[in-house]
UniProtKB/TrEMBL annotation:
<protein>
    <recommendedName>
        <fullName>SET domain-containing protein</fullName>
    </recommendedName>
</protein>
<feature type="domain" description="SET">
    <location>
        <begin position="67"/>
        <end position="180"/>
    </location>
</feature>
<dbReference type="InterPro" id="IPR001214">
    <property type="entry name" value="SET_dom"/>
</dbReference>
<dbReference type="Pfam" id="PF00856">
    <property type="entry name" value="SET"/>
</dbReference>
<dbReference type="InterPro" id="IPR050869">
    <property type="entry name" value="H3K4_H4K5_MeTrfase"/>
</dbReference>
<dbReference type="GO" id="GO:0005634">
    <property type="term" value="C:nucleus"/>
</dbReference>
<dbReference type="InterPro" id="IPR046341">
    <property type="entry name" value="SET_dom_sf"/>
</dbReference>
Amino acid sequence: PVQGFHGIQKKVDWSLLDDHCSSRGLKYPYMVRRLACMVISGDVGADCLDILQPAQLHQGTLIEMEEEFELLKSTFRKAGFQEELTTFLTKQWYINILARIRVNAFRIELVASSYEDLLSSAVASVTCDASVGNAVYMLPSFYNHDCDPNTHIVWLENADAKLKTLRDIDEGEELRICYIDTSMDVNARQKILTEGFGFQCRCQRCLSGD
Ligand SMILES: C[S@@+](CC[C@H](N)C(=O)[O-])C[C@H]1O[C@@H](n2cnc3c(N)ncnc32)[C@H](O)[C@@H]1O
């Protein structure tokens, strides 16, 4: 049962959407679904992610999304939610949210149990796949990427995020994190950032061809 939908518990059968996503290896629709539940329950507004930068979506992704959206909408309908609780759930809302989640979701990595673990956690999180989940964090979403970052996000208990500096920071210097494994060469990094994140990196390291 889904708790807290205006105090009402509803049993929702997610199996069609789960099958659709797991057979295609999709993870972001689960996050849109979670946000939709939060909106229905009144925890957040439907426009809560509008402040974040959206990804540019390709035609293929938009077509894929139509199916995901229809499955999500019909799942809520079948579960018997009142129409007025789900009026925000339009195809355009789904596209807007997914576009923002794609650019701004963080992979939650190893959880450090003590402050001493933070640095080793920072190193491990870019060298191995230690992901335990994905989440959008509002403030960290405003950090730009750098292939030679001066800070790194680490995760503590309960998936709390903490920013760790990796070297001394000059006054006025922009705090930048890395979105990818920066041990790759410049061409591989540019390819991943262009295809996966939709931008061409203009950090100093890339500009110098390193
Ligand atoms: C998570 S957002 C970062 C915050 C964003 N700049 C903003 O103002 O909300 C990621 C977007 O920022 C831009 N960006 C981040 N790092 C960049 C970089 N190194 N080079 C060029 N654009 C970058 C890209 O447009 C990317 O899609």
